[in-house]
C-alpha cells in the first residue's frame, strides 16, 4: 500500500523514517522519475482513554525530532477527515507530511538514481553460492560467472533466509500474508476538495487512505486468523516467484472491514473492485535486521522489513554511512541482527511472527512484555524454582524475574501508563536490599572468556580503561572510532592472561561481534569463548550479604580480605563459584558465577543461610531503581553509540594516558579548540600537541 509516516514509537528509528521521506520528496527532481508521492498527513485515532494516555506518552518523546506531531481533538479531526463517524473519537495523533507513495515507481526511481551515480544493476541474476575467502573478501557465484567483492549486503527480502543458509546462517524470518482492498469511486470522497489524510484506526486494527476517488483499506488481523507462508520456510521460495500475489481471503479480514464501515460509513455503499494479497517478511519482533553479522566477516544484512517502504531510504543511508565510517551513525541496537541466537528456532519465529502481526496496533505500554513462544530453550537453573513466584521478563531469549509476589499482591502482567500492580512490590524489594539482604538471578548476563598470549594486548586495545591486575575487576568501555560508547563490560582478570568479560543480556552478541572482529583484524593470538549459556549467575546484595555468605565459606570475606572489585574462586557449601565483589545495586554485594546446573542448589543454600537475616528475592525492576539512585549508568539508557563517555559521566573509567584512543576521541568530538582548555590539566602535553596538529 506504500504508506509513509514520520511516526515511530521509538526514538532513533524516527530518523530512518525522516530520511526516507526527505529522500522521496526530492527523488523525482533528482532522477527525473515520477514516484507518485502523496503527503496529505496521517491521523491515528484514539477511541479509548488508554489510547489517549498512549498518545500523551508519545508526545513527551516527540521533542527528540524535528518532525511535526500534534495531539489533536475531535473538532480538528473532523476538519481533516470530514467523512469520519465521530461518536467514539476522543483524540488523534496527527503527523503532517505523512502519506503514501507508489512502490513500483519508487523502486524504479531509486534504480535510476543508483545508475546516475555509477552503480551497475544486473537483474534477474540468481546467486547460486557464496564463498568466503581467507582475506575477508567474497566470491559470489552466479550463472553468468563469479563476482569478487569486498563485502556482501544481504537485502534479498523473501530470499534472505536462503542467502544466509548458503553460509550456514539461520536468519529468523518468515513471510506473512497481508491483504488490502480497494473500492470503486465513492461520491462523498470524489466531492472532497483536498485529499484525506491516512487514517489509522488502532482499535479496529486497520489503515485507510484515499485511492483516487475511492478508498484503500488494509487490516492487520489477529494472530489466530492471520496466515503465514510456512512452506517458504521449509521448502524455499518457489522458483521464479516475483510479482505474483496470493489468493485472497476476505472472510479473514471481514471483522476489520465492518469496523471500518462503522468508522467511515460511506464505505457501506462502496464496491470492492480489487483485493491484493501478498507476502511481507517478518522477523519475530517485527523489526528488521540491519548491520554486520557476527561470525562472518564482511557479511551485512538489511532484511526482515515489515514496513519496507518507509524504512528503505533511511536504512540505505544508515548502512552506507556505517560501512564507510566503520561505525553506525547513530544507535539502533534494536535492529541489530545479532539480537537473535540459536534459541530463535523456526517454531519460535513462526509463533512470534503471528503475535507481532496481530499486535500491529495494540497499545504500546512502557515495559511491554509479549508472551508468545516463551519460554525458549534459554532458561536459567532457577526458572522452575522461581516461575510461580514472580513476574518474568524476556531478555535475549532468557526468562528473568522482574518482580516477586507476596500474599495480597495483585499478580500477573498489568501494563499501564500510570502506577500499576508492581509499584508497591518493587518498593518493598528496594527496601529489602537497602536494609537487609536480597538475591537476584543474573544468569542472562552475556559472559565471555578471553585468554591467550595476546589477551592483555587485545583488551588494552579494546578498552578505554586500564587492564585489571590478576584477582581484580573493573568496569571498562569499548569506544567507536568517533569515541562513542559502543559497549560497557565488567572485566575480571581470573588468572594470568585469562579474563572473564560480562555484559548485559541484550548486548551479548552485539559486543562479542566487535571483540572477535578486532581480534581478527589485529592478528591477536587469543581464544575467545562465549560461555553465556553454560554459566549461571546469582547476585546477593545488602548490608547483611557478607554475613550470609560467610556462613557458607571458609574464605575470609571481610572487607580487608575481600575488597571491592576483587574476584576469586571460592566454594559456598561445596559449590564452586567465581565470586566478584560488585553489585549493580550500589550496596554491599557479590556476583557469583557458577555452573548453570548448580544454580538451584546454590540458591537454596544461600536462602537457607540467610533466614536469620531476613533474606528474600528481588528482581530487575528493583535493581534498576537501586542503580539509578546510586547514579550507576546503564548501556542503552545513559550511554550508547549516541553518547561519548564524558557526556555519559564516565570520566573515571576513561584513562586519558591511553594516547591512541584519546586523540581519536577528542579530534572527533570537541567542536572548538577553545573547548580543549577545560581538559588541558588532564591531558599530557604530547597528546595536546597531537590534538592541535
TrEMBL record:
<dbReference type="InterPro" id="IPR028896">
    <property type="entry name" value="GcvT/YgfZ/DmdA"/>
</dbReference>
<dbReference type="Pfam" id="PF01266">
    <property type="entry name" value="DAO"/>
</dbReference>
<dbReference type="InterPro" id="IPR036188">
    <property type="entry name" value="FAD/NAD-bd_sf"/>
</dbReference>
<protein>
    <recommendedName>
        <fullName>Dimethylglycine dehydrogenase</fullName>
    </recommendedName>
</protein>
<feature type="domain" description="GCVT N-terminal">
    <location>
        <begin position="387"/>
        <end position="658"/>
    </location>
</feature>
<dbReference type="InterPro" id="IPR006222">
    <property type="entry name" value="GCVT_N"/>
</dbReference>
<dbReference type="GO" id="GO:0005739">
    <property type="term" value="C:mitochondrion"/>
</dbReference>
<dbReference type="InterPro" id="IPR032503">
    <property type="entry name" value="FAO_M"/>
</dbReference>
<feature type="domain" description="FAD dependent oxidoreductase central">
    <location>
        <begin position="326"/>
        <end position="377"/>
    </location>
</feature>
<feature type="domain" description="FAD dependent oxidoreductase">
    <location>
        <begin position="12"/>
        <end position="322"/>
    </location>
</feature>
<dbReference type="Pfam" id="PF16350">
    <property type="entry name" value="FAO_M"/>
</dbReference>
<dbReference type="Pfam" id="PF01571">
    <property type="entry name" value="GCV_T"/>
</dbReference>
<dbReference type="InterPro" id="IPR027266">
    <property type="entry name" value="TrmE/GcvT-like"/>
</dbReference>
<dbReference type="InterPro" id="IPR006076">
    <property type="entry name" value="FAD-dep_OxRdtase"/>
</dbReference>
Amino acid at each position: 500500500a506504500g504508506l509513509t509516516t514520520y511516526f515511530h514509537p521509538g526514538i532513533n528509528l524516527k530518523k530512518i523514517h525522516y530520511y526516507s521521506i526527505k529522500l522521496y520528496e526530492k527523488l523525482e527532481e533528482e532522477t527525473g522519475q515520477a514516484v507518485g508521492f502523496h503527503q496529505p498527513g496521517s491521523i491515528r485515532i484514539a477511541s479509548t482513554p488508554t489510547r489517549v494516555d498512549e498518545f500523551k506518552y508519545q508526545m513527551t518523546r516527540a521533542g527528540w525530532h524535528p518532525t511535526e506531531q500534534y495531539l489533536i481533538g475531535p473538532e480538528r479531526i473532523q476538519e481533516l477527515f470530514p467523512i469520519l463517524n465521530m461518536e467514539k473519537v476522543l483524540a488523534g495523533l496527527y503527523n503532517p507530511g505523512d502519506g503514501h507513495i507508489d512502490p513500483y515507481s519508487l523502486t524504479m526511481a531509486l534504480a535510476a538514481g543508483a545508475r546516475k551515480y555509477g552503480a551497475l544493476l544486473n537483474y534477474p541474476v540468481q546467486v547460486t553460492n557464496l564463498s568466503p575467502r581467507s582475506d575477508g573478501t567474497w566470491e559470489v557465484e552466479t550463472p553468468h560467472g563469479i563476482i569478487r567483492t569486498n563485502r556482501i549486503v544481504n537485502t534479498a527480502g523473501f530470499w534472505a533466509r536462503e542467502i544466509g543458509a548458503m553460509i550456514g546462517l539461520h536468519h529468523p524470518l518468515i513471510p506473512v500474508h497481508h491483504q488490502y482492498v480497494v473500492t470503486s469511486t465513492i461520491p462523498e470522497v470524489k466531492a472532497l476538495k483536498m485529499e484525506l489524510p491516512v487514517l489509522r484506526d488502532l482499535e479496529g486494527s486497520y489503515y485507510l487512505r484515499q485511492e483516487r476517488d475511492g478508498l484503500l483499506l488494509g487490516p492487520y488481523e489477529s494472530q489466530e486468523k492471520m496466515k503465514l507462508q510456512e512452506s517458504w520456510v521449509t521448502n524455499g521460495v518457489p522458483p521464479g516467484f516475483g510479482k505474483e500475489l496470493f489468493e485472497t481471503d476476505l472472510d479473514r479480514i471481514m471483522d476489520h472491514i465492518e469496523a471500518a464501515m462503522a468508522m467511515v460509513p460511506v464505505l457501506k455503499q462502496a464496491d470492492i473492485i480489487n483485493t491484493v494479497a501478498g507476502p511481507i517478511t517478518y522477523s519475530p519482533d517485527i523489526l528488521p535486521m540491519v548491520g554486520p553479522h557476527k561470525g562472518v566477516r564482511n557479511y551485512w544484512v538489511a532484511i526482515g522489513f515489515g514496513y519496507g517502504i518507509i524504512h528503505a531510504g533511511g536504512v540505505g543511508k544508515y548502512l552506507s554511512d556505517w560501512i564507510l565510517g566503520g561505525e553506525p551513525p547513530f544507535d539502533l541496537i534494536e535492529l541489530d541482527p545479532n539480537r537473535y541466537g540459536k534459541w530463535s528456532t523456526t517454531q519460535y519465529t513462526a509463533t512470534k511472527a503471528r503475535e507481532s502481526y496481530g499486535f500491529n496496533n495494540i497499545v504500546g505500554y512502557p515495559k511491554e512484555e509479549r508472551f508468545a513462544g516463551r519460554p525458549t530453550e534459554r532458561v536459567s537453573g532457577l526458572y522452575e524454582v522461581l516461575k510461580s513466584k514472580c513476574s518474568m521478563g524476556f531478555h535475549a531469549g532468557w526468562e528473568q524475574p522482574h518482580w516477586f509476589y507476596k500474599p495480597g499482591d495483585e499478580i500477573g502482567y498489568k501494563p499501564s501508563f500510570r502506577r500499576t500492580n508492581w509499584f508497591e512490590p518493587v518498593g518493598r524489594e528496594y527496601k529489602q536490599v537497602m536494609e537487609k539482604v536480597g538475591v537476584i538471578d543474573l544468569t542472562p548476563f552475556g559472559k565471555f572468556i578471553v585468554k591467550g598470549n595476546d589477551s592483555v594486548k587485545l583488551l588494552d586495545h579494546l578498552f578505554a580503561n586500564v587492564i585489571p591486575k590478576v584477582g581484580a575487576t573493573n568496569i571498562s568501555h569499548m569506544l567507536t572510532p568517533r569515541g562513542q560508547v559502543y559497549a560497557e563490560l565488567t572485566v575480571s582478570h581470573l588468572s594470568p592472561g585469562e579474563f572473564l568479560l560480562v555484559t548485559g543480556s541484550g548486548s551479548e552478541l552485539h559486543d562479542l561481534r566487535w571483540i572477535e572482529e578486532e581480534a581478527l583484524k589485529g592478528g591477536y593470538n587469543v581464544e575467545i569463548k562465549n560461555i553465556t549459556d553454560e554459566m549461571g549467575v546469582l547476585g546477593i546484595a545488602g548490608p547483611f550479604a557478607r554475613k550470609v555468605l560467610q556462613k557458607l565459606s571458609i574464605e575470609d570475606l571481610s572487607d580487608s580480605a575481600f575488597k571491592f572489585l576483587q574476584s576469586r574462586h571460592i566454594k559456598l557449601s561445596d559449590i564452586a563459584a567465581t565470586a566478584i565483589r560488585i553489585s549493580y545495586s550500589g550496596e554491599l554485594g557479590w556476583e557469583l558465577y557458577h555452573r548453570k546446573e548448580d544454580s538451584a542448589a546454590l540458591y537454596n543454600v544461600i536462602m537457607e543461610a540467610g533466614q536469620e537475616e531476613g533474606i528474600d528475592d528481588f528482581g530487575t525492576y528493583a535493581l534498576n531503581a537501586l542503580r539509578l539512585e546510586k547514579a550507576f549508568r546503564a548501556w542503552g539508557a545513559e550511554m550508547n553509540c549516541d553518547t561519548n563517555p564524558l557526556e555519559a559521566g564516565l570520566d573515571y573509567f576513561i584513562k586519558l594516558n591511553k594516547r591512541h584512543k584519546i586523540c581519536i576521541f577528542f579530534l572527533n568530538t570537541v567542536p572548538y579548540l577553545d573547548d580543549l582548555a577545560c581538559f588541558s590539566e588532564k591531558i599530557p602535553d604530547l597528546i595536546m600537541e597531537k590534538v592541535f596538529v
